[in-house]
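User: Reviewer 2 asked us to show a designed sequence for the structure in our supplementary figure. I'm pasting the structure tokens here. Could you produce the per-position amino acids so we can include them in the response letter?
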């Protein structure tokens, strides 16, 4: 799938003595990847909302805002300015959104002159057709809307409209929690429907999208996507029907804590029905038969109150927390139902950083819907800007979960952060950093961005091989100060008082060079590698300071190259700002265990060489140009493929929203005694082979297999078609004619699921 807007931070910096202006492209709006449950019975296509008759007048295009000028003298290091708290509507300082130019009216069309008839026939007069004037009635921009909700969730669409046409589209299939997850968790008929419907809808007008045929086998979801697109166009109307407030239909919402989902039905602008559903920890509906007495009582009290009063519903004594959660869920459903949705933010995934320090920095990855926080993950990074996870300070690790709960309960960041009230005791500094990171992520999501391209504050930057750390002060889009530190060979920062005289001189020269000329700084003779690292660290710091959301998520992603009957190749790739900052390569056997020194000598020799080359390459594209190591060509190609697939897993918006990567993948049972090799073509598992292993991970010969093992092997392999979905390629379950076969098939199913997980995007 094509990305909504693919933008990267420009490394070019306009320079002036000691301070320079930073250049950055426009906001890159992204959304996270898909989820949901099963496709149900086909539903009739929803009718598009009627369009108002009024034609919008073209709006004058705003003038571009001038880039701030470079400061002539360096500014003193100051406390980072507080990031503006996002409000329900864009602030006065926000940059005006680009408005569409009026589409030129077509010239009058004239019917060709009539052909002269035979003499006996009178010559008809040529008729001129009336002039038809069409203006672009849709405001250019990014719009998100959802179809009608049902028990498994709903469909959605995030589209970019330009000149009345869809120029980019991301189709969503949500769970009851309304967060888009992995496509492979959906009903199998949807796996290829994503691509088919995307291709059908891309480039279409509103009427053209409404006329698109549904994909066979995914009719309900196809019509849900079409309805979502139509509603997105309705929201984009420059002049809306003032009598229409809500889309007719069933709309779903959840509270940010994930305690309740609410379905709100609107007909002719009136709320006609409300259903309240408790959610479990996975974000799915609790079966009504499994309700606790407390849940039943809460649902019975909340439902009529919401139907009568909506968000103004008053809580019943003892159910205050439940009412608050359910009311938040109703508010969310109401926002999804509103034609004129006034959220100041674009739904999607965003990531940002708090204030950097020499010991590290906090990062937050969030999901926003209707201006509310619906998902958040908090990280504590070390001074190499790699997540420390459980190795962070004990109090910080302990604070992660309660701070996550506080942020979700608030539905946003804390606008007036108070460390005693909002922070977690023992980790107030990290709590503040996380809150600040969430605040900045919200600012990245603004529909109408502010004039600044960069956040004010202190930001860290590290080259991808962790040689140099920079702490960069940014104010009013200008770098005002840089503190440069060197990493030692042990991976730790060298304290200033431990630097040699030569190192101190080098640090001073690099610092002054970066302040004066930025990434255009000339390399220091004899220190070209360190000079390049310093410039890369500056680029990294400015990317971290940028208000542009990148293309890839930060983090570590594991992927595999194509397998064969001796095993496969694995890559654990750590990304930051789309750059490879760490990579670990492995040659694994049929049991998926690292073979280490027991691998082929050529592969053992090749792995460290490839590791160095891949780190030096640094990007997805550059890795594919890395030369294969002589004697290990196949493994070199497989490892480069694994790196590319790791990038595929990290995409915020998938280039191709498929359930699986194409290729050959292996998986093993929990006891590592069964291996299944799965072949994926066009995003669908089409063939499977079963191998039984000994305790050393070697394949057992056919004459060593039991009757049960042979029977299960035959069942799996004989149902391979080689061209369509394998019988066990979707929600495989154990089978067998007797207990022995059932026991073996249970292990085989474990291996199938493992292989599909390896293949999953």
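Assistant: Here is a per-position design you can include in the supplement:
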């Amino acid at each position: 799938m094509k990305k909504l807007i693919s933008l990267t931070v420009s490394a070019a910096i306009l320079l002036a003595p000691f301070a320079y202006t930073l250049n950055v492209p426009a906001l890159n709006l992204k959304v996270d990847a898909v989820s949901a449950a099963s496709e149900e019975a086909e539903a009739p296509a929803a009718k598009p909302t009627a369009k108002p008759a009024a034609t919008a007048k073209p709006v004058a295009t705003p003038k571009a805002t001038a880039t701030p000028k470079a400061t002539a003298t360096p500014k003193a290091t100051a406390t980072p300015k507080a990031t503006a708290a996002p409000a329900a509507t864009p602030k006065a300082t926000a940059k005006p959104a680009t408005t569409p130019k009026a589409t030129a009216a077509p010239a009058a069309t004239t019917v060709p002159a009539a052909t002269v008839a035979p003499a006996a026939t009178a010559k008809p007069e040529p008729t001129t057709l009336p002039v038809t004037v069409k203006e672009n009635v849709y405001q250019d921009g990014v719009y998100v809307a959802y179809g009608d909700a049902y028990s498994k969730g709903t469909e959605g669409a995030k589209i970019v409209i330009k000149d009345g046409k869809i120029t980019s589209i991301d189709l969503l299939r949500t769970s009851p929690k309304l967060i888009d997850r992995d496509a492979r968790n959906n009903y199998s008929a949807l796996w290829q429907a994503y691509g088919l419907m995307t291709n059908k809808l891309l480039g279409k007008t509103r009427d053209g999208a409404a006329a698109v045929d549904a994909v066979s086998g995914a009719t309900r979801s196809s019509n849900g996507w079409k309805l979502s697109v139509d509603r997105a166009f309705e929201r984009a109307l420059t002049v809306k029907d003032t009598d229409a407030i809500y889309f007719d239909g069933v709309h779903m919402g959840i509270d940010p804590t994930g305690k309740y989902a609410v379905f709100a039905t609107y007909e002719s602008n009136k709320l006609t029905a409300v259903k309240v559903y408790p959610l479990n920890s996975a974000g799915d509906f609790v079966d009504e038969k499994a309700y606790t007495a407390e849940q039943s009582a809460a649902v019975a009290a909340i439902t009529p109150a919401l139907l009568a009063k909506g968000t103004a519903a008053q809580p019943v004594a003892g159910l205050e927390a439940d009412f608050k959660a359910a009311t938040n869920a109703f508010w969310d459903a109401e926002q999804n139902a509103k034609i004129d949705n006034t959220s100041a933010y674009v739904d999607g995934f965003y990531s940002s950083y708090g204030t950097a320090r020499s010991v590290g920095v906090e990062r937050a990855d969030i999901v926003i819907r209707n201006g509310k926080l619906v998902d958040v993950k908090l990280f504590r990074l070390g001074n190499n800007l790699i997540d420390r996870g459980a190795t962070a300070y004990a109090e910080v690790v302990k604070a992660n979960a309660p701070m996550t709960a506080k942020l979700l309960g608030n539905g946003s960041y804390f606008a007036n952060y108070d460390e005693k009230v909002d922070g977690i005791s023992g980790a107030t500094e990290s709590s503040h950093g996380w809150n600040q990171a969430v605040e900045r992520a919200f600012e990245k999501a603004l529909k109408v961005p502010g004039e600044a391209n960069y956040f004010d504050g202190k930001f860290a930057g590290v080259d991808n091989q962790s040689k140099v750390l920079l702490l960069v002060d940014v104010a009013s889009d200008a770098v005002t100060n840089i503190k440069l530190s060197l990493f030692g060979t042990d991976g730790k920062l060298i304290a200033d008082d431990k630097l040699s005289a030569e190192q101190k001189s080098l640090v001073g020269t690099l610092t002054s060079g970066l302040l004066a000329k930025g990434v255009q700084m000339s390399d220091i003779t004899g220190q070209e590698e360190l000079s390049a690292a310093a410039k890369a660290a500056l680029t990294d710091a400015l990317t971290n300071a940028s208000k542009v959301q990148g293309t890839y998520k930060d983090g570590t992603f594991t992927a595999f190259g194509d397998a064969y009957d001796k095993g496969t190749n694995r890559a654990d790739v750590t990304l930051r700002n789309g750059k490879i900052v760490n990579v670990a390569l492995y040659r694994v056997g049929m049991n998926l265990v690292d073979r280490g020194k027991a691998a082929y000598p050529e592969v053992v020799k090749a792995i460290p060489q490839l590791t160095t080359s891949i780190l030096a390459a640094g990007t997805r594209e550059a890795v594919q140009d890395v030369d294969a190591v002589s004697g290990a060509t196949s493994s070199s190609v497989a490892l480069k493929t694994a790196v590319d697939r790791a990038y595929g897993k990290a995409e915020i918006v998938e280039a191709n929203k498929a359930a699986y990567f194409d290729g050959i993948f292996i998986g093993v049972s929990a006891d590592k005694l069964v291996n299944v090799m799965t072949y994926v073509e066009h995003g669908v598992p089409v063939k499977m082979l079963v191998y039984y292993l000994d305790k050393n991970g070697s394949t057992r010969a056919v004459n060593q297999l039991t009757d049960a093992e042979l029977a299960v092997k035959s069942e799996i392999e004989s149902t391979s078609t080689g061209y369509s979905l394998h019988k066990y390629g979707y929600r495989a379950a154990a089978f067998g004619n007797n207990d022995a076969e059932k026991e073996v098939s249970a292990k085989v199913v474990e291996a199938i699921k493992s292989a599909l997980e390896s293949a999953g995007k």
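For the response letter, you might also mention the following. The mean pLDDT is 85. Residues 419 and 428 are 6 Å apart (CA to CA).
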